[in-house]
Amino acid sequence: MSKTISPVFIYAASSFITVAEGDILPPLKQLVVEKSGASVRRVGRFIQLALIGTGECLQGQSYEPATAVYLASENGDMETQIDVLNAMYREQQPPKPLSFINTVSNAACFYIGNAFHLSGESSFISAVGLAFERALSVALVDLQLGRVPAALVGVVDICYLPLQQHRIRIGAEPDYSVGEGSTWLWLSPLIEGKEKLAEVRSAGFVHSIDELSEIGSIPGDYSGILVAGAVSVTDQEKIRQRFPRAVYQSDIDQMPFFNSRQAHVVARFLHQNTQGDFLYINQGIDGDMAYLYLRK
Predict the structure, then answer these.
(1) Disulfide check for 262: which of 156, 217, 229, 270 has CB 3.0–4.6 Å away?
(2) Whole-prediction pTM value?
(3) CB 265 within 8 A of CB 281
(4) Whether residue 174 sits in one domain with residue 259
(5) φ and ψ at 96, to 5 degrees?
(6) Which of 188, 213, 240 is the last residue of a domain?
């Protein structure tokens, strides 16, 4: 017996970015309290950014307590991981108990659930490239099949000083501005009477632009907004040939560099006072592409 596939809608979105100035990172502790109401101690920037982004996304929302959390990151809580490794191997000291526990990046989900009184399941998804898109795809399947009533999907990236080493770690150019990011979407099947930001028309992964052309849910004469993230020059040209009527937008180059900055373009579009379609395409290091097709 086949299961009914429910349409999914985005009801809230947030995009929080910090910029590293020299070897100084902006403090986050007060923002955590303001955005989440949580006064947490002895946690690093990864958990702080997760709480700030979640708080901005859920602010003013009446949400289902059973909302599931899907947190993604390419490098996870590298601050805590590096600090623990330095203590163990350089200083020959045992790690602090709480720091050791927080090396598991899913610990951020615990703090989110505690701060916002969420009782749903949680997942941490790490991937080199397309981490946000992979977390979103898992959440969409769970929502469409009715496994969860609502989903909070986020991606978090932090800086770890010194910046010279951090740039090497994340593949940024030596003179490029770097930063941190926390992007979140709150999704659910239709909630009667509640204002929505957009409907998720389709989402998934393809190996090439040719495969993207075969997706029936994306019209051949697509004329809405199109954002191509970290896509190769060759594939960008193929995308333009595939969607000649699309309106191309991107402010990615104006952002500081961090692994998931493409995801912030999605959140920013959702808050634009415009109606219409939005097609987002991003490319992983293996050449595979993720796509997300929204309608406002």
Answers:
(1) 229
(2) 0.91
(3) no
(4) no
(5) -65, 140
(6) 188
